[in-house]
Design brief:
about 500 residues; alpha/beta; Nucleotidyltransferase, domain 5; six-stranded mixed beta sheet; globular
Length: about 500
C-alpha cells in the first residue's frame, strides 16, 4: 500500500507549526515543515492575536509542503480553545480576536444574569474569566454594535478550516471549550445564549470530531499536490487531539496528563459528570474523539519553569531544560511547596521572587538556588496531580491503573518520576507531539484510512517510543498533609470564586 500524506496546522498560544504526517505500513512519521511565533498586538488597550500574521504564516507553511510534490490527502487545523473570530456577511473578520488571557473580567456582571450553578449545569465548564462566555460579555460591553454587525462566530481553528475549504462549521471538541455548548444535548445552550442576548443565527452548525469536508479552495488547488486534498475537522481543540493520541490499551483503566505550559489531568468518559461535587472540585467536561467526554481538571504547569528561565536569562544566567532538570535532581527533596494556582503565578514577571515571596508568607524555607526553586515547582506539580487523581477517582468511581503523560512535559524525566511517586501509579510518558499526531491520525480516520479510534491508538503505540516510570520512594504522609493544610490542592476554585 502506498504511503498517505496529511498536513496538520498545529497552533499553540506561543507558536504554530505546519507538520507533514506520513502514514506507511502501519507507521506514522512526522516532519516539521514550518514553525513560526504566534504574535499578539495591542488594539484599543487590549491584547489581541495578529490574525493576519497567523494566516500568512500558515499559508506559507502549506505552500512549502505543496512544493514537496507529495499527494496530500488531508489538511486540518487545531488550536487552543476559548478565543474566537467574528465575521461579517462576506466572511471577513470584524476585529482582531482577543487573547483570552488579556486580563478582562466580566464574570460579576454576567453572574447577575445567570448564576454559576446554572452555567455549570448547562455547560459542565468551571468558572474562569478567560472563557468565551465572559469574553463575549466583555466585547458586548466594549462595543454594543459589534455583534449587530457580526454574521458568524467561529473559534480559531474552525475559522482556519473555513479559510481552507469555504465550509463554515464548528467542531464539537472546540465548541465544548466555549461555555456556550451543552455536552448533554450536544448543542448550543439556549439558556446561555439568552443570558448573553446572543442571536443563535451567528453560531455555526456543529459537527463531530473527524468530519471530512470538501476539497480545498481554488487558491490552494493551484498546487498539484493539493488537487485531491480534503479538509477535515479533526479535533479542532489541540488538547482533544492530543488525548485522542494517548497510546492507551482499551482493557486498562487509565487516566491522562497533558503536561505542557498548563496541565490537564483527566479520564475519558461516555457521558459528562455535571454534579455539584464536580462543580465544586473544578472539573470540566469537554468533548473528545467519538463524542467521548474529557472529564478533567486544569491546573498550572511548566509555565512556571518557563518564567523562571526567562527571569534568570534576563539576569545573565542561561539554563537549558536539561541544566535545570539536573540541578533540580541534585537539589534533593524540597522543604517547601507552592500553590501553583495562586494568581501571582499565572502572570509573567520575576517568578523566582514570586516563589520566594509565597514561601515567606507561608512560613516555609525559601529555596535559594535555581535547582532548589525548580525542585520546589516540580514537587508542587506532582503533589497537585496526586490530589487531582484522588478527586477524579471519587467523582467517577473508577480505580485508575495507569497514567499516560503526553505533551512536552512527557520529556521531563524528573517530573514524570515525581508524578509516579506521588500518585502511586506507573507512568507511561510520550509522545510529546501528541496534538499533531492526533490531528493527523484523526484525518486518516475520517478519510477511511484507519478503521477505528483503537486502530488509531495502536498506530501511535507502534510509531512513537514511550518510557515507563514506576513508583519509587513516594512522598511522606507529613508532606502531603502539609500540602493540603496550606490550601495548595484547591485549584482554580479558590482563585476564581465559585
Amino acid at each position: 500500500m502506498n504511503p498517505t500524506y496529511y498536513l496538520a496546522c498545529d497552533l499553540g498560544r506561543e507558536n504554530g507549526r505546519v507538520v507533514l504526517g506520513t502514514l506507511s505500513k502501519g507507521q506514522l512519521s512526522l516532519t516539521e515543515i514550518h514553525r513560526f511565533p504566534n504574535k499578539t498586538q495591542e488594539v484599543n488597550g487590549h491584547v489581541c492575536w495578529d490574525l493576519v500574521a497567523l494566516e500568512k504564516e500558515i499559508f506559507a507553511g502549506i505552500e512549502k509542503a505543496a512544493q514537496l510534490n507529495l499527494p496530500i490527502s488531508g489538511l486540518s487545523a487545531s488550536s487552543w480553545g476559548v478565543d474566537y473570530v467574528l465575521l461579517d456577511g462576506e466572511d471577513k473578520p470584524l476585529q482582531s480576536p482577543n487573547c483570552g488571557k488579556c486580563g478582562r473580567d466580566e464574570t460579576e456582571r454576567l453572574l447577575k444574569k445567570l448564576p454559576f450553578s446554572t452555567i455549570y449545569a448547562e455547560t459542565g465548564i468551571p468558572l474562569m474569566p478567560l472563557h468565551t462566555l465572559f469574553q463575549i460579555e466583555a466585547d458586548q460591553q466594549a462595543d454594543p454594535a459589534l455583534f449587530q454587525k457580526a454574521e458568524r462566530f467561529l473559534p480559531i481553528a474552525d475559522y482556519l478550516n473555513t479559510r481552507f475549504c469555504g465550509v463554515a462549521a464548528c467542531e464539537e471538541s472546540l465548541a465544548s471549550t466555549t461555555q456556550l455548548y451543552n455536552p448533554q444535548t450536544h448543542a448550543w445552550s439556549p439558556k446561555v445564549l439568552a443570558a448573553l442576548d446572543l442571536p443563535g443565527s451567528i453560531l455555526p452548525r456543529l459537527v463531530p470530531s473527524g468530519t471530512a469536508f470538501g476539497p480545498v479552495v481554488d487558491a490552494l488547488r493551484k498546487y498539484p499536490s493539493l488537487v485531491n486534498t480534503r479538509v477535515v475537522a479533526t479535533c479542532s481543540h489541540d488538547m482533544a487531539a492530543a488525548i485522542a493520541a494517548v497510546p492507551a490499551r482499551a482493557e486498562q483503566r487509565w487516566a491522562y496528563l497533558n503536561s505542557d505550559l498548563s496541565s490537564q489531568f483527566g479520564v475519558e468518559l461516555q457521558a459528562p459528570i455535571m454534579s455539584s461535587q464536580a462543580r465544586e472540585a473544578g472539573f470540566t467536561n469537554e468533548v473528545g474523539l467519538g463524542g467521548s467526554i474529557r472529564f478533567l481538571k486544569n491546573s498550572a504547569g511548566l509555565s512556571i519553569v518557563h518564567e523562571c528561565r526567562r527571569a534568570w536569562e534576563a539576569a545573565g544566567q542561561t539554563y537549558s531544560c536539561d541544566d535545570l532538570a539536573r540541578l533540580a535532581r541534585e537539589a534533593g527533596a524540597s522543604e517547601s511547596h507552592i500553590a501553583l494556582d495562586d494568581p501571582r503565578f499565572r502572570e509573567p514577571g520575576d517568578m523566582p521572587e514570586k516563589i520566594a515571596a509565597f514561601c515567606r508568607e507561608t512560613d516555609q524555607p525559601v529555596p535559594a538556588t535555581p535547582g532548589e526553586i525548580i525542585r520546589t515547582v516540580l514537587e508542587s506539580l506532582a503533589l497537585g496531580h496526586a490530589e487531582t487523581l484522588q478527586q477524579l477517582q471519587a467523582l467517577t468511581g473508577q480505580e485508575i491503573e495507569v497514567l499516560h503523560v503526553v505533551g512536552k512535559g512527557s520529556n521531563n524525566e524528573l517530573l514524570n518520576q515525581l508524578v509516579s511517586d506521588t500518585t502511586g501509579l506507573p507512568v507511561i510518558a510520550g509522545p510529546a507531539d501528541a496534538s499533531a499526531i492526533g490531528n493527523i491520525l484523526i484525518q486518516a480516520l475520517a478519510l477511511w484510512h484507519l478503521k477505528s479510534p483503537d486502530h488509531l491508538r495502536s498506530i501511535v503505540s507502534s510509531s512513537f517510543p514511550t518510557r515507563i516510570f514506576k513508583p519509587g520512594h513516594g512522598f511522606a504522609k507529613a508532606v502531603r498533609e502539609k500540602f493540603r493544610s496550606l490550601g495548595l490542592a484547591l485549584g482554580v476554585l479558590e482563585t476564581c470564586g465559585r
